[in-house]
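Lecture notes, part 5. Sequence design as translation. It can be helpful to think of inverse folding as translation between two languages: the language of shapes and the language of residues. The source text, in structure tokens, appears below.
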């Protein structure tokens, strides 16, 4: 199989929300289509990918480095030896002449193409992506459908009617079948955050859970004061209160936290993940690892991260990949990870990407259509239409 063209474009993900770190007014993302000379079910075989959220589109790097490398390669360099494309070998083609370390934004660009090649591999095998991953790298007992535990992520700050709007969001999500929720902290005063948390706990029903997310903006003193004030609440986890790369500070505050910690969404490589495991003081029995698969060089690199987790005695149940997108949901199902994220706000484009996946009693059910599932999106033509020609 030969790659005949790779088309990409940048789309607006703008949303009038903010967390303690950034506003999403100007947020963008990339979409990619990898065309081949093969056909499946009577149609041209095309692999698709949609970016993760939070790091903007990757068009420049895709156009200047990574797409040209794939297009210039001999098809034998990425062949799986059985007429298909091996994402692992294609990954090596893309990373040729890239120095180790200093990962920057390239991990997101490579992750986009990796995701499209896995979508392509799954379609080529006529399997949903989660099932292909389960067969090759996960649970061998995967059935026709995959049921995964999910949490509903939102609680961004509003300029007006903040608490009322937050409660409306949570009630709507409960009505949609969600049982686990995550809201932001640190974008208001501690007293205002506690009011938000207190009010949300008043809305939650028995057996439901609430986590909080500081988006990496707290210093040591602020973290300890939040941990102290949150003690009376059954917080499911506190996410990224401190800077994602300050592993010493992680170790310091985690040692003083009865609340489970979650972090890793802003580490974009196996190297960084390994350092977090070595030096971050995270606890294997309760803390969560949230490496974003798409932003971290894709599934090929994530499999290496899982190997490192295993070597450090961590189980896959402690993994909750960042960002509610179809790639992460497929990986959670196929690789036997603990928890997937979905966006609470389904009015934004990013929220719409997973809004069609059936949810019930805190679980999502992935279907049996081949690939990652983009073709089932109600907005499929709007998002991918002009990349398919
Ligand atoms: Mg987060």
């Amino acid at each position: 199989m030969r790659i005949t063209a790779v088309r990409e474009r940048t789309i607006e993900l703008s949303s009038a929300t903010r967390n303690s770190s950034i506003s999403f007014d100007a947020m963008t993302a990339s979409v990619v289509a990898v065309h081949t000379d093969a056909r499946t079910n009577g149609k041209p075989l095309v692999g698709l990918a949609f970016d993760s959220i939070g790091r903007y589109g990757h068009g420049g790097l895709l156009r200047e480095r990574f797409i040209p490398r794939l297009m210039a390669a001999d098809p034998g360099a990425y062949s799986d030896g059985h007429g298909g494309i091996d994402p692992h070998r294609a990954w090596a083609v893309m990373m040729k002449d890239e120095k180790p370390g200093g990962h920057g934004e390239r991990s997101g660009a490579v992750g986009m193409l990796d995701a499209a090649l896995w979508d392509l591999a799954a379609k080529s095998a006529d399997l949903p992506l989660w099932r292909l991953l389960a067969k090759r790298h996960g649970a061998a007992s995967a059935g026709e459908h995959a049921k995964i535990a999910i949490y509903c992520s939102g609680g961004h700050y509003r300029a007006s009617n903040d608490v009322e709007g937050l409660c409306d969001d949570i009630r709507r999500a409960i009505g949609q079948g969600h049982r686990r929720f995550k809201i932001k902290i640190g974008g208001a005063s501690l007293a205002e955050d506690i009011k938000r948390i207190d009010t949300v706990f008043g809305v939650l029903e028995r057996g439901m859970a609430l986590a909080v997310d500081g988006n990496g903006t707290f210093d040591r003193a602020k973290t300890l004061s939040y941990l102290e004030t949150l003690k009376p609440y059954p917080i499911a986890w506190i996410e990224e209160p401190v800077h994602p790369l300050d592993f010493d500070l992680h170790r310091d505050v985690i040692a003083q936290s009865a609340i489970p910690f979650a972090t890793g969404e802003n580490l974009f490589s196996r190297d960084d993940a390994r350092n977090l495991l070595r030096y971050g003081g995270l606890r294997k029995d309760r803390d969560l690892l949230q490496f974003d698969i798409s932003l971290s060089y894709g599934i090929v690199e994530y499999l290496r991260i899982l190997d490192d987790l295993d070597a450090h005695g961590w189980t896959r149940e402690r993994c909750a990949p960042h960002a509610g997108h179809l790639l992460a949901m497929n990986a959670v199902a196929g690789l036997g990870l603990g928890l997937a994220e979905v966006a609470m706000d389904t009015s934004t484009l990013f929220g719409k990407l997973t809004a069609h996946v059936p949810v019930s009693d805190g679980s999502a059910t992935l279907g049996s259509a081949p690939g990652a599932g983009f073709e089932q999106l109600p907005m499929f033509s709007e998002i991918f239409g002009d990349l398919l020609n």
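The translated text above is only one of many valid answers, since several sequences can fold into similar shapes. The first strand starts at residue 3 and ends at 12.
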